[in-house]
Amino acid sequence: PQQQQNHQQQQQQNQLLPNEDGGCSKNGFLCRQSSTRWTPTTEQIRILKDLYYNNGVRSPTADQIQKISAKLRQYGKIEGKNVFYWFQNHKARERQKKRLTTDISAMQRGVWRSDYQESICSTKYPNITSGAPSSSASVGGLHAAGQVGNYGYGSFAMEKSFRDCSISPSGKASGSMFQNFSWAGAGAGAEPYPSPYQFLEKKTCFVETLDDQE
Amino acid sequence: PQQQQNHQQQQQQNQLLPNEDGGCSKNGFLCRQSSTRWTPTTEQIRILKDLYYNNGVRSPTADQIQKISAKLRQYGKIEGKNVFYWFQNHKARERQKKRLTTDISAMQRGVWRSDYQESICSTKYPNITSGAPSSSASVGGLHAAGQVGNYGYGSFAMEKSFRDCSISPSGKASGSMFQNFSWAGAGAGAEPYPSPYQFLEKKTCFVETLDDQE
DNA sequence: ACGATATGAATGAATG
DNA sequence: CATTCATTCATATCGT
What positions does the domain Homeobox occupy (chains A, B) (predicted)? Predict the structure, then answer.
């Protein structure tokens, strides 16, 4: 059913080798060095994918991220952000890929159905209430309890293009309300790019310091 | 001081000329700016950060947003919403990092460390009072008058406990977001790569107890 | 080596 | 204010 992630990812399992030479042969100088980006090991990848595909984890919570990273740390250096980004990216790219893959023609013909896109997820998670998870990579009992099926947002992209939220022109801007900015609907038939600072600009008196000497 | 410009920092360096339009002429190279999304120039970033860190601006009001964007417009095309989002994102991300820098396990143990990083507001002027404010980027007398000291709420999540304070006595805590992300700012922490994940490593028998469903 | 691709990281833009 | 989505940059890796 899914074949979108079997290209190349079988690199070595060396986590991070601080053996970087001091010579920044890059374009600048204050470059990389040890700041090499995280390179997931195969074990880490395996676990992550297992969580993703077998446990339906898509956007792990802080708690989950913690557990996951703690777990993955056994296989190499890793930080919470790596896990966070991994899921973000994986989800995003899968969707992106699907967008391109999923016959566009189907969409334009309207024969597109929303059930075949979820095939990759096997939908096995919905009822975690049974008890023992028995998942392959149960990282801290991570079961993606609350988010399963959440991403089933219809399908791919097509309805999220125009999100024009027309807001009511309050006219009064006080505090931190932000929905009454003209930009809320910017482009919704307004000016090309208007100077949006007149809608509430009352221009007090202080004009003394407009120093542009930053 | 809060951005780990190690190597990445993608399109940040493209300096749009003080044009008024989208006329970007970076280095005589590719003008990638034509996209939809705002690409802050370095000057704009600098001012924004200055406002953020030196003036304590966190959630600028419409008024402030106006002034700021007007000011920043000298350095490139910008709209109010860009400013608005910038502050929102900057705050959220800083918070996101920080919020969990004070990892929950420490929190539950009361070992909470109020280790801060930024030089938030220097408690500027409570008002647009007298003469020249010495702030770097005083945008039209924008001094963050009303909100300084507002976020000086000590630190972690405390006012929002109602939402994510699901700390269980069993040593489990369901925070809201990532906890120990040391990535974002690194303004003060700046550890190469911390490994503070043992705090939740206490239980290896984790099996399914992750249910943090509301 | 160079170019293509995969993917980590960052962040603007939204939404709830 | 928290979370998520989309885009884009940067770099690691592989193929030729």
Answer: 31-97
